[in-house]
Amino acid sequence: MAVTKYEKDGKTFWRVYIDLRGRGNSTARVQKRVNGLTSEREANAEEKRLIRELSEQITRLEAQGLSWGDVVDRWVAQQELFPTRQYAVATVPDHAALMRNWTTPWLKRSASELNRGDGREIDRLAEAAGKNGAFRKKIKNTINVIYKWGIEERLITGVHESPVFGLEVQMEREERRPEVLTSEEIKSLLRKAREQNHPWYPIWVIAVLTGCRSGELHQLKRGDVEVISREAAIEEDQKPFHQKRYGFIRVRKSWNTRFKQVGPTKAGYWRTVPVSSEVYWFLMNERQLERLRPEEFLLPRFSDWTKGGQARTLRAFCIGNSLPSIRFHTLRACFATQLISTGIPATVVMKICGWRDLKTMQRYIRLAGIDEAGATEVLRFIPTEEAVMEKVVSLYDHRKKE
User: Which of 12, 40, 108, 135 matches a 20 to 30 Å C-alpha distance to 365?
Assistant: First the structure.
């Protein structure tokens, strides 16, 4: 706040400049400047009037709370400082970008003023852009999470529910089937990659046999692998499959392509992946595991992989070999589906893959059909050959008696 004197065209004038910020909300700010006052007394009177006027505006702004854009920014900062189990640190920027891209009309508006009509508008915009129900539901869920957090943190005042709370998002009748390969397609993929001596062959093998994410495989080192000796492995080969023990892989770190840095796994914790006989002998024979030092990377290193081109490379290979076009992450889905289909409990697969809840697993459980397996065996409607022949014999005997 200031009253200043200045000269113009040989005359003396006064100007008043007021700049006020909220006490509880530093983003609440109002400014105003008045020029051309002819006396200092007039300027002082104008200053007092402006202070009263702008103070009332600040009070109204603080009562409204932060803008939606400010709430989103503060939520991101909170998640980065104090990560929660709900969202992995690596996915927080994705959710923030989702909000900035699809709730653009809200960003400068007071969050407390948003209502159910505003929520329907956002859903209509996404639908008009051709987004499916699953994507629109993701927008809705993210809005709910951030808005609820804003209310709890008292950044959004005067309301108790999100503007999309209870909003029904129409889902497509036909759910998109998860991208996954059959057992024969997996074998065909790896066989052709080996026949062509494809440089990515070792990476694809370990991906489909461990279920690790691309970034996790990128950071695997010899020191993360603990295996038995060759002599012990030969003895293990003779045991039933459920008794075999070749070692394990500790999945500790992950490469983040977006930020070009090494960080924790997506779930935020390390996990153990059992080494199967296939993984053991592949590492021993193809990669000569004994010769690697603990600090050396387990798999080949490619610049395309570091830059995030793993999906593009795999798709190009599949298309060129008349195989179903898949992304790299599909290899992880193949691993999970194949395990579940053979009767491995979903909770065990969750631990191996690093999923935090069953929600993600449900698609693969349905795809594997393990819950439904055998359920229809109780039905017996088609007549058996024995029953038919018995009827024929009975009729024949009846006619013979006549």
Answer: 135
